Amino acid sequence: MNSIKSQLIVGVISTFCIFVSVHTSAQGHHHASNPVNRSIDKKQDSCQSNFLECANAATPYFTANGQLYLVWSAQGNVLIAKSTDLGKSFDSPKKLAEHGKTLDTGSDARPQILVDQQKILVAYAFFKDTQWNAQVNLIRSEDGGESFSTPLPLIQNDSSQRFPILGQSPQGEVWIIWVDKRLIQESKKRGNPMLGGSIAYAWSSDFGKTFIEEQIANKHTCECCRIGMAFNSEGLPFIVYRAILNGGIRDHVTQEIGKKRIGPVRRIALDDWKTDACPHHGPAITVSDKNDIHVAWFTQGSQRQGVFYAQSKDHEALYSQAKAIGSEGAIISRPYLLSNEQDIWIVWKEFNGKETRIMAQYSVTEGLEWSTSQVISKTAGYSDHPLLIKGQGKVFLSWLTRLDGYQFIALKK
Amino acid sequence: MPYQKGDWESILKKVTDEKVVIHFWGVTCAPCVKEMPLWGKFTHENKNAKIMYIQVDDVSKQMVEQMLQKANLSKGENFYLTTAFDEYLRYEIDPQWRGETPMTIWIDRDGRRTRKIGTTNFLELKRWFQKNNL
Lengths: 413, 134
Description:
The structure holds two protein chains of two kinds. Chain A is built from one helix and 29 strands. Chain A is mainly beta. Chain A has a domain at 325-413. Chain A is globular. In chain B, strand 2, helix 2 (30-45) and strand 3 (50-55) form a beta-alpha-beta unit. Chain B has a single domain, classed as 3-Layer(aba) Sandwich (Glutaredoxin), CATH 3.40.30.10. At the A-B interface, loops of A face helix 2 and helix 4 of B.
């Protein structure tokens, strides 16, 4: 296995502020409760603007002093804006990258963001050639978002990198994980083509200026599903992803990764989903204060179908029996987990053909018992995945919808 | 041809009283792309088989056409999505379809449908088209 050192030297080249054409005279972008000045077309699907109302996917970052950054993709562009009132209004968005129809806007793709005081790091992927090889780009700001660098590739090769996920450990190190296809490419050249992709990762101690040595965590994984990442109290990352196991089974596993050590792969459940299709549904993970691992995933295996949850004590014990998530008869998808002190929260989408609802449950017993489900929000049109983020002692739902705006809702027990 | 949410009924109306296969694929979906030349081959070798192709990724029309050309399917009955590939779009096609691609719906003469996820067994497909009973 090759470990190639990747140097990423990024300078703040120039003030890179492109103010997107503002359709109205309003300064900020208003939350759904203030529907004035919205440029949305009645037919939601002919959305033309770069604003949140036409966005595909939006990813938040909530700073310790209550600033909410949002990075999103719209019209093939990557944009960023900041809110100081919990998402009710945002400042004028800045365009960070333009890729038109080659930006990766697949249903499991989303731009990534980390903020550390004045430094901002954004990652996303786009398709770089006619062979549909993808590339992960990084963008940095050193001045609190006044200016941004031009996007630069994380890896320089002719292979493919997709579905980046960024995380910052409690100790401040930045980790990036992605689906990598260099080994697949090599296997094709050898005449023995492998399916899927590999999970690769690298880490940085200078907030993404330079990354140390990418490693391959697993050579046989599903190439079209997002990866989940969470840190334990020692700053060790745990990842969850859909692997390709013997016999072409696409079931979920977790793995502890490290600077020098790549931990063993632990299968979460025997779902037995034998398929060569691209599911486009990736899993979620959170690590509690007690270092227990909590995971949620989607499967259509022969043993179970739908969305499920399980936990493992310390990653040492076997995973608990998979617990079905969501109401009977509803179409369940997009689970997301977050631990906050003694609470574990899970949210997911429920669809009944007419309306999409975001449901939530919490546990104060490390996932052994769960509250009844509550409806947090709903919409009747396109929406992004529900995400959870915490700050100011609370857990918030972050949810982008086409018809009901961007929502940032504090969860209550 | 463009395909958007709401079009499913009109697609079905085109094909009453005959067997038809509707194949959903994506330009950015590697297993789909790998398989497309086989669909091209099948379409050419079975000219009487009614097959429609619907491309679901948000990519340019040009890119779709390039891929179809590579697969020898330029002259096939091709559609590409012009609306979001979300649960609303999928629900009217097949409420149980969760978005996996490639996906194929086999519809027999009396309208009975079978959803198949993943790559196709073309030998099985050929036999199905050739069967005379319903």
